[in-house]
Design goal:
Radius of gyration: 23 Å
Shape: globular
Number of helices: 14
Largest sheet: 6 strands, mixed
Helix content: 25-40%
Oligomer: single chain
Length: 359
């Protein structure tokens, strides 16, 4: 008898929870498509004919309430990008967009910040990078893609000489920052101030949020409290974190969520006013909402600095990049505008990778 009562009560409980879920979903704010907004940083745009205003805010609310699991972009055979936000939002929005044509001439119109010529890198006897030649353009987002172990992160670390501390690492060739070879007699502290880095996993220092951001400026000799206060606030605002932490700057940065910690690390890098920001898979350890925030942040930051991003996420590369470089077995296979790489790659190895035949 007691077992039967328990089963009945448990069934009623599950039924109540299910009815509550259906009711909250039925009364949820607009499930309309994304609002019409041009992603000038990548050229992804939606048709204005069927996209009402304020629906982006509704989409964000939907994600916060658990209805959106991942922002996803799929390249269709005709070159169209279909933007999906899990099966529910896909069914209820059906948003589609296309990649704008960003030509090689458009990229060439931007000045070169980093110029890599004939770069070879060895870890002992292992030839990790093979005759790499690439130009990183100013105030653009360049993404590095390719299978694991192909040399993406290795090249990224060359840009601020993070490989210097690796035993038996040898580099041949030239890397010029604004025309000056950084592999020669170049002040390493100055280099890492100009070329900041955000790593794959958030790594805030075990100190307060304020001290995390002020760490770099203090190391550069800034002692004036008013100047530090201004730098901390400005950096946190640029990292889209100020409103979330302005009342708890004295609390430990380790107490923040994963997404907040990553933005704190971005703010820490921005505090020393870098010209270039390197991001090594910055969203691989984050949830979809935090990933969206970091991607939007990256696209805003390119207004003031150059970004180089390593990613294994093809959809992310399509969303945020101006150009994409594909690496394979230490070789740079091709570096072209994003639309060209995804719609009409010149090398069959790139097409094979994008279609999932390997990697």
């Amino acid at each position: 008898m007691q077992t039967l009562q328990f089963v009945i009560l448990f069934t009623l409980f599950l039924l109540t929870v299910w009815l509550f879920f259906l009711n909250s979903r039925a009364n949820h704010p607009s499930w309309a498509a994304l609002e019409h907004r041009r992603y000038a940083h990548r050229g992804l745009h939606c048709s204005a004919d069927s996209v009402p205003e304020n629906s982006l805010a509704a989409f964000r609310r939907a994600i916060r309430h658990g209805y959106g699991s991942e922002l996803d972009v799929h390249l269709l055979r005709d070159g169209t990008l279909a933007v999906f936000h899990d099966s529910d939002l896909k069914r209820m929005t059906g948003v589609t967009g296309v990649l704008e044509d960003c030509t090689a001439q458009d990229l060439a119109a931007s000045s070169t910040r980093i110029d890599v010529e004939g770069l070879d890198l060895f870890y002992g006897d292992h030839h990790a990078l093979k005759d790499v030649n690439i130009k990183i353009r100013d105030k653009q987002i360049t993404s590095f893609i390719g299978p694991s172990g192909c040399g993406k992160s290795t090249l990224l670390r060359c840009f601020n000489r993070m490989n210097d501390g690796i035993k038996d690492c040898r580099i041949e060739g030239k890397i010029a920052l604004d025309g000056q070879d950084i592999l020669g007699d170049y002040d390493i502290c100055r280099l890492r101030q100009r070329v900041g880095m955000v790593f794959q996993r958030p790594n805030p220092f075990p100190m307060s949020i304020y001290d995390n951001v002020a760490y770099g400026p203090r190391g550069m000799g800034v002692r004036d409290r008013a100047v530090l206060d201004e730098l901390v606030e400005d950096s946190l605002r640029r990292a889209a974190l100020w409103d979330e932490v302005k009342d708890k700057l004295k609390e430990s940065g380790l107490g923040l969520s994963g997404g907040q910690q990553q933005r704190l690390c971005i703010a820490r890098a921005l505090a020393v006013q870098p010209d270039i920001l390197l991001m090594d898979e910055p969203t691989s350890a984050l949830d979809p909402v935090s990933t969206l925030v970091v991607e939007q942040l990256a696209c805003e930051l390119k207004e003031t600095c150059t970004l180089v991003v390593v990613t294994h996420n093809m959809q992310q590369a399509a969303r945020i990049s101006d150009s994409v470089a594909f690496f394979l077995l230490g070789e740079l296979v091709e570096h072209v505008p994003t639309a060209q790489l995804f719609k009409n790659p010149t090398d069959p190895r790139t097409a094979d990778y994008l279609t999932g035949r390997f990697g």
